[in-house]
Amino acid sequence: MIQVGDKLPAGTLNEFIEVEGNGCSLGPNSFDIAKETAGKKIAVFALPGAYTPTCSAKHVPGYVQQADALKAAGIDEIWCVSVNDAFVMGAWGRDQKTGGKVRMMADGSAAFTQATGLTLDLTARGMGLRSNRYSMLVVDGVVKTLNVEGPGKFEVSDADTMLAQAKAALA
């Protein structure tokens, strides 16, 4: 499992782009993780799935509500990562009103999730291999804090915890 001090694994994540520009076309676009994190401070939070109850009612809304405070604390970007395709993540982002606040990054084949070692096997529940619920503060591609939730929990990966960690680490 990835640890504090480790570099994020190489690979790509996908994001559904609503408006063409900045070298991005409409629809799903692939982003190289190393390039996207270089020189940036990123709050990453991951969850088991789009439109699932805790994820939709608490996890994403918390980061949307705290986006300005996180940016004021020194965070450049906020990423939500889930093992869903870019179309689903884009639609969920629209529903959650994440535009300009949280990048909805799709890990459709779970390659990033597997590379971090933060997988959650929900095959018995009909959902297959998913991401565990966690958050991490990433600075220039290196993990500075890591908060992995216990099974069925939502206690340490929330936006308030990340905000406190960002204030402490980036002060």
Number of folding domains? 1
- Which band does the percent of strand residues land in? 25-35%
Radius of gyration: 15 Å
Question: Could you spell the SSE succession in H and E letters?
Answer: EEHEHHEHEHEEEEH
Characterize the largest beta sheet: strand count, sense, and whether it forms a barrel.
Answer: 7 strands, mixed
Assign an overall shape.
Answer: globular
The CATH topology:
Glutaredoxin
Low-confidence stretches: none
The tally of beta strands, per DSSP, is 9
Structural class: alpha+beta
CATH superfamily: Glutaredoxin
Report, as a whole number of angstroms, the end-to-end distance: 28 Å
Name of the top-level CATH class:
Alpha Beta
User: Average pLDDT, to the nearest integer?
Assistant: 93
| Count of discrete alpha- or pi-helical segments spanning 4 or more residues | 6
Helix content percent band: 25-40%
Going by CATH, the architecture would be 3-Layer(aba) Sandwich
Strand order across the largest sheet: 2-1-5-4-3-8-9
EC number: 1.11.1.27
Domain Thioredoxin: 2-171
Organism: Pseudaquabacterium pictum
GO biological process, one term: hydrogen peroxide catabolic process
What does this structure look like?
The structure is a single chain. The protein is of the alpha+beta class. It has a single domain (12-170), classed as Glutaredoxin. Helix content is 31%, strand content 29%. It has helices at 33-37, 53-65, 67-72, 86-96, 111-116, 159-170; strands at residues 12-17, 27-32, 41-47, 77-82, 103-106, 119-122, 128-131, 134-139, 142-148. The protein has a seven-stranded mixed β-sheet. It starts with 11 loop residues before the first strand and ends with a helix. The mean pLDDT is 93. Thiol-specific peroxidase that catalyzes the reduction of hydrogen peroxide and organic hydroperoxides to water and alcohols, respectively. Plays a role in cell protection against oxidative stress by detoxifying peroxides. Its EC number is 1.11.1.27. Residues 2-171 form the Thioredoxin domain.
